[in-house]
TrEMBL record:
This is Uncharacterized SAM-binding protein YcdF (DUF218 family). Residues 56-180 form the DUF218 domain. InterPro entries: Cell_Envelope_Assoc (IPR051599), DUF218 (IPR003848), Rossmann-like_a/b/a_fold (IPR014729). Pfam families: DUF218.
């Protein structure tokens, strides 16, 4: 009986430790989520000094509202020599893309390149890296959603560490960052993006460790 009692005590202690570790991990995750949400750029951050600084290229990651229009406006304003749109679906050409964006094809068609191979943020980074090397460009302005920017910058840093990347976040009207926890759609989006960012950060740290 004494042995059985001792085993139960050890089991209870082990479960207690596991619960404590789980509680600490959960609190750390939740605290990180709050930090992540608060660190997302809000307007007028998009109108910072970096917004007017020229770069060799503008790169737009498809997948969200306002990104392409912002990229085209930046190109028209002369913020870069060329625009690269990464992650475009097969069959879409530049003229159709400009028509969808209500832009005149004759004005800027010659300065736009579409990338069709990327289907993820990692793919965006590699597809863009190949194009930048072909063009001989050393700086780029990255246009993507504000909540997606932190992970995108990390992915691009791993693939093209020698290229200067200027962030240009775009705010979506459908993502409510103020009191985000009150909006189920926004909360779900931020939790998903935060988890993806943590996995990307883990990959980044492992790569740095292996290279050191």
């Amino acid at each position: 009986m004494a042995r059985v009692g001792s085993r139960r005590v050890r089991l209870a202690r082990s479960l207690g430790r596991l619960l404590a570790v789980g509680l600490v991990a959960g609190l750390a995750w939740a605290g990180g989520l709050v930090w992540f949400a608060n660190a997302i750029p809000r307007p007028p951050a998009e109108e910072s000094a970096d917004a007017t600084r020229p770069t060799d290229a503008i790169v737009v990651l498809t997948g969200g509202s306002g990104r392409l229009g912002t990229g085209l406006d930046l190109l028209t304003a002369g913020r870069a020599r060329k625009l690269f749109v990464s992650g475009v679906y097969e069959g879409l050409d530049v003229q159709e893309l400009l028509r969808k964006s209500r832009q005149s094809p004759s004005d800027i068609e010659c300065c736009i390149t579409l990338g069709y191979s990327a289907d993820s943020t990692i793919g965006n980074a590699y597809e863009t890296a190949d194009w930048l090397r072909e063009q001989g460009f050393r700086s780029m302005r990255l246009v993507t959603a504000n909540y997606h920017m932190k992970r995108s910058l990390l992915e691009f840093r791993m693939v093209i560490p020698d290229v200067e990347v200027v962030p240009h976040p775009v705010a979506s009207p459908n993502v409510h960052l103020e009191d985000w926890w009150k909006w189920p759609g926004t909360a779900s989006l931020l939790v998903t993006e935060y988890n993806k960012y943590l996995l990307t950060l883990l990959r980044y740290e492992l790569e740095m460790l292996l290279e050191s």
